[in-house]
């Protein structure tokens, strides 16, 4: 699977990999990304040159879904948890380079110190917000619709193939 940020295979050889607008003619438009992906899968299954196809998200929106209310207890618990993970990593490093016969004490010291520092830093950052953002959330970039584009020399063939797909019942 390729990354949407890795650039195009059609970029100039040796040139910088800068963002460029998509090229091609529209051969399909879908309300959900899964539908556009299904269309490209159909093209690939039917020997269409999919390396000339682009899925373009149009009418982009940043959607922020609120996941919960922040309280002091939750902030401190999350800070302790993330600090403990970092402390575990530091404790493992201390264990590797330690000359002591026991490995448990550097590990415990790392986890406990990490949890304490995590709580302190979480408390400082939450207090600095002064109640302006008392919720946690997850952000996602979504499009209003997804257009499938193909290069002009194969666009008509792609439209015909996707029209046949649209006439079949969804699975």
UniProtKB/TrEMBL annotation:
Region (Disordered): 1-24
Residue intervals of the General stress protein 17M-like domain: 27-113
Keyword Membrane found: yes
Name assigned to this protein: General stress protein 17M-like domain-containing protein
Pfam family, one: YflT
Keyword Membrane: yes
Residue ranges crossing the lipid bilayer per the database entry: 75-97, 103-128
Regions of compositional bias (Polar residues) in chain numbering: 1-11
UniProt keywords, alphabetically: Membrane, Transmembrane, Transmembrane helix
Organism of this sequence: Halosaccharopolyspora lacisalsi
């Amino acid at each position: 699977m390729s990354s949407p940020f890795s650039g195009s295979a059609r970029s100039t050889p040796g040139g910088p990999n800068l963002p460029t607008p998509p090229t091609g003619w529209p051969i399909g438009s879908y309300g959900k990304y899964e539908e556009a992906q299904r269309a490209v899968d159909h093209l690939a299954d039917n020997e269409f040159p999919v390396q000339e196809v682009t899925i373009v998200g149009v009418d982009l929106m940043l959607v922020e879904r609120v996941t919960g209310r922040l309280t002091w207890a939750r902030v401190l618990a999350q800070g302790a948890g993330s600090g403990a993970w970092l402390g575990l990593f530091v404790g493992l490093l201390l264990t590797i380079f330690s000359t002591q016969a026991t490995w448990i004490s550097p590990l415990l010291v790392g986890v406990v110190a990490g949890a304490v520092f995590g709580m302190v830093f979480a408390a400082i950052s939450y207090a600095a917000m002064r109640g302006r953002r008392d919720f946690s959330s997850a952000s996602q970039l979504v499009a209003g619709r997804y257009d499938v584009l193909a290069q002009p020399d194969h666009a008509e063939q792609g439209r015909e193939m996707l029209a046949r797909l649209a006439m079949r019942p969804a699975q």
